[in-house]
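The records we work with from here on pair a chain with its fold. These numbers are not coordinates but entries in a learned vocabulary of local backbone shapes. To see the layout at work, look at the sequence and tokens printed below.

. . .
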Amino acid sequence: MSLFRKLASRFDDWLDRRRMADRASEEQDEPVVVVPYPGFGTGSKIHLRGSVIEESSQEKPPFDGGLLEDLAVTTKRFLAEEIMGATVIVTYGGATVTCTTDSDGFYFADLDAEVGEGWQEATVTLKDFPGRDQAPLTVASPFLVPPAAARIGIISDIDDTVIQTGISEPLRNIRTIVESDAGSRVAFAGLPALYRALQREGEAAVVNPIFYVSSGSWKLFDLIKRFMQLNDIPEGPMFMDDWGLDETRWFKSSHGKHKTAMIDRILGTYPDLDFILVGDSGQHDAEIYAQAVRDHGSRIKAVWIRDVSSDARDAEVEKVIAEARAQDVAVFAEPDLLEAAVDAARRGWITDADLARVRSDVAAQEAAA
């Protein structure tokens, strides 16, 4: 099987090179842009990632709500013209690194630099790329350095944890995936208030970092970013997946492999932080988080699983999380996060006023259902 993957990957790369050559020969003039993703860092190290694509792949639709239009826009998004071989220069302070985008248009930059706390901005410059001349383009690339005062980090899934996608219901999930209007997607009741409360831990200043780990595609990044802005959900570094062919996979990484690797990376980057893990029962978050408890022990302070699955799957989840409970980890598997919020207030992670807001939001959505 690995031989077939290798051949498919090489064919995909050949198609990318052929497409770039065609673009140059036909003198196509679609603007090429840099899309930086929210990065993360420490006081001495910065980790950034982004992509270089043709701007037309991010054109916004008129949003008339039609399924065919949504499908066309989403297809265009997933077939975006990714620019391989582009030269990207990333700078912060006196540190500079030059990157070359890979066959999927991604660049990766690690910088050694003295960095302040909180949200910072590096500078990313698209210097040039094969196939056509374009003036250099510079954009800001945000990244987060958790403050020294942070006591706990939150690692959150996105689909069916933050956004209602119906991932355990295939037809509903497909409709949500192709939905091209961020405003039409729905947040779970109480979650924005709970995440904001956890982030500031009852204080006026933002302290605790939230990391979003998902096996969803980076090609949906702008939609998710807009969704979070519309629903007042705290921003945070994002760890999504690259859906494409390479020599190790056909289309995307396995859900468990990707998320486990990202969780390990986050905990390894911040060895002084304990963590809350938030996910759903629709895929394998329970199994992934139980493994995190085994691997990282007492650093995992709570596991919150939103129950979005059938009774048969619920029984599987209960068996998996029993092990975490046996290690004295607070585990909640409920349709909403209200009981988790009650526990968070009991621990002092959120205030009683925060809990009241979460309770009110959940009650309002239940009344409207």
In short: The domain at 152-368 is CATH 3.40.50.1000 (Rossmann fold). Residues 170-175, 249-253 have pLDDT under 50 and may be disordered. Residues 2-25 form the longest helix (24 residues). DSSP finds ten helices and 13 strands in the chain.
